[in-house]
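Run: sequence + fe (iii) ion -> complex structure.
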Amino acid sequence: MIIGSHVSFGSEQLLGSVKEALSYKANTFMFYTGAPQNTLRKKIDEKLTKEAQKLMKENGINLQNVICHAPYIINLANKKDEEKWDFSIHFLEQELKRCDELGISYLVLHPGSAVGYPVNEALQNIVDALNIVLEKNYQCMILLETMAGKGTECGKTLEEMAFLLKNVKKQVGVCLDTCHLNDAGYDMNRFMEFLENFDRQIGLEKIKCVHINDSKNSLDSHKDRHANIGYGTIGFQVLLQICLNEKLKDVPKILETPYVGDTWEAKEKKYPPYLFEIAMIREGKFNDHLLDSILSYYNK
Ligand code: FE
Ligand code: FE
Ligand code: ZN
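>> structure
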């Protein structure tokens, strides 16, 4: 199973990300090239990149399976302010260039939020923007993420995703997110049925990444709040079966579950759950003392 989590990309850039992933016993990972909420980015350091790739090789992490995530503030759907739309396009191009420098094959992108636009126009804005960006022939492929439909988010139904994929001129792929799918109204208890539906409308081969998250909210809630694996409304067994699905066997699984605090209710969240969540999934056994395990490990 190819499984990892979201990790940071700090002062050591990709090298720091690899070290963090290894601390979770992961064989892949996902990172942002800077803070997800802003567009401040440092130049990619070639030496750190080489060291990172070497460390990956030594530890059996295949660079092909490593994922980058674009920042949230890129919004290709809203063209009301043309300058902002252009900025999003330009930033996405820069991000793809950085991925190429790092040797990363996939960049996950939220399709965008319609804001004042009717959905069909917003979708067309996304297609137009992607067609401008893809003209430049980057090595790295964009993966559009399925969204929860919070606010005016686009990409909350398979029909919307199919429209996007059919109308972009070059290849883009898809990143599924189990929390988002649940919140968008797709029942993860019926995942096989969902995959058949996906295959009919889009094609299974387009799925290049799956975000494995539990959800704090119920089916069709349109909320998008991730829960720890087995501690939300989707549940451990359902998420485990998705991880084990034969059809997605070669697709990297990425956890984006929340950090935990000293209690489940604590406001300050400081401990990553990934070492223990990955272990649960690999062992196929739910840990009903997840919080205790994490706290005793990081306070050791
Ligand atoms: Fe995302
Ligand atoms: Fe996600
Ligand atoms: Zn989310």
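>> summary
The chain has one domain: 3-298. Residues 177, 179-180, 224, 226 surround zinc ion (ligand 3) (CB under 6 Å).
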